[in-house]
Write a structure and sequence with these properties.
- The structure holds two protein chains of two kinds.
- Chain A contains four helices and four strands.
- By secondary structure, chain A is α+β, with helices and mostly antiparallel strands.
- Chain A has a four-stranded antiparallel sheet with strand order 2-1-4-3.
- By secondary structure, chain B is an alpha+beta fold.
- In chain B, 39% of the residues lie in helices and 42% in strands.
- In chain B, a hairpin with a 2-residue loop joins strand 6 and strand 7.
- In chain B, helix 3 packs antiparallel against helix 4.
- Chain B starts with a helix and ends with a strand.
- Classes of the chains: A alpha+beta, B alpha+beta.
- At the A-B interface, helix 1, helix 2, strand 3 and strand 4 of A face helix 1, helix 2, helix 3 and helix 4 of B.
């Protein structure tokens, strides 16, 4: 086979590979953009809800007593379902973590209630 | 000739791909701009420091125990922030009168590097303490100064310089909190 024809084939293969890479990267970008753009940061709403409870003087007492149900029932928010989990210093948690997809998590750290006893309160919106 | 034409196509394709990847850093902003959670976490931690100190003080008359608990709270917060890919750093200063003529300052340095902190009191003449604090630790110093009921407290480190008028009959807290994720930084300080 003449050298020119052989080389032309090599170039065609190379062009085809580059074309595939171009198309794949384009599709990847489109896919990622579609995922990111419509996201609404509901977790910020969750933070505001927890801070609201703290400002009302409810969150700390309920938290150090491990009363996640009282925290959850004090939250007046009806757009999403919500559950609460309380995690202590060692990372051990009590409460309800939803077993579903598309869950927004908001965290709120407290150092205790009159005594030093740090906890992390997690609010799940789903 | 045909092979050469092919070379130009390949060259153009390589150029196109290079241009695409050069534009990628701009696209990443779509993700890194979602730092709203960091602002809220910052608000939470920043507001919690005086609570943490008060809660610690309520538990013991020994100020050293309270300082240990505040250090503990700082490390706890650092762990939680690390889980959210936030680089958390803080420096706090607790000042109090240890007697009628002496003043004590304790510095907690959690900035990620060793720090020299100048703490000055003006009452009305000024007296300065230079406190060297290794990273991730606290250091304390006591120095004599005749105290009025109200003194001016100055805290200086790095390029930070802040002052406030404080009452001598209470424990005062200065805290500077910084959070960073990627290029996004939130930082503020407060006296309590």
């Amino acid at each position: 086979m003449p050298y020119n024809i052989k080389m032309r084939g090599v170039w065609y293969i190379l062009e085809a590979i580059i074309s595939i890479i171009l198309i794949l990267t384009f599709l990847l970008v489109i896919r990622n953009t579609a995922l990111i753009a419509p996201q609404q940061d509901v977790s910020l709403t969750g933070y505001s809800l927890l801070r609201g409870l703290d400002d009302r003087g409810l969150l700390r007492n309920y938290t150090v007593n491990g009363d996640y149900e009282a925290i959850n029932s004090s939250i007046r928010y009806y757009v999403y379902n919500h559950t609460v989990e309380i995690c202590d210093y060692s990372g051990s948690c009590s409460g309800m973590k939803p077993n579903t997809t598309n869950v927004y998590v908001s965290s709120y750290i407290i150092s205790g209630d009159n005594e030093y006893n740090p906890y992390e309160v997690k609010l799940y919106l789903y | 000739m045909g092979a050469r034409k092919g070379q130009f196509f390949v060259l153009a394709a390589v150029l196109l791909i290079s241009l695409f990847f050069m534009g990628l850093p701009d696209k990443n902003n779509l993700i890194t701009s979602k730092t709203g959670d960091m602002v809220f976490l910052f608000d939470n931690v920043y507001r919690e420091y005086p609570f943490a100190l008060n809660n610690a003080l309520n538990m013991s008359d020994n100020i050293e125990d309270s300082i240990d608990r505040l250090s503990n709270f700082t490390r706890y917060t650092d762990t939680l922030m690390s889980q959210r890919l936030i680089n958390y750093s803080t420096l706090w200063v607790i000042t109090r009168n240890s007697s009628a003529t002496s003043w004590n300052a304790t510095v907690g340095n959690f900035l990620g590097y060793d720090m020299v902190v100048n703490v000055s009191l003006c009452s009305p003449s000024c007296s300065k303490a230079v406190i060297v604090v290794p990273n991730n630790s606290t250091n304390s110093t006591t120095w004599g100064i005749p105290l009025q009921t109200q003194v001016q407290l100055f805290v200086e480190f790095d390029s930070e310089s802040h002052n406030v008028s404080v009452a001598i009959n209470k424990i005062n807290l200065y805290s500077m909190v910084r959070m960073q994720r990627g290029e996004n930084i939130v930082q503020d300080y407060a006296f309590y």
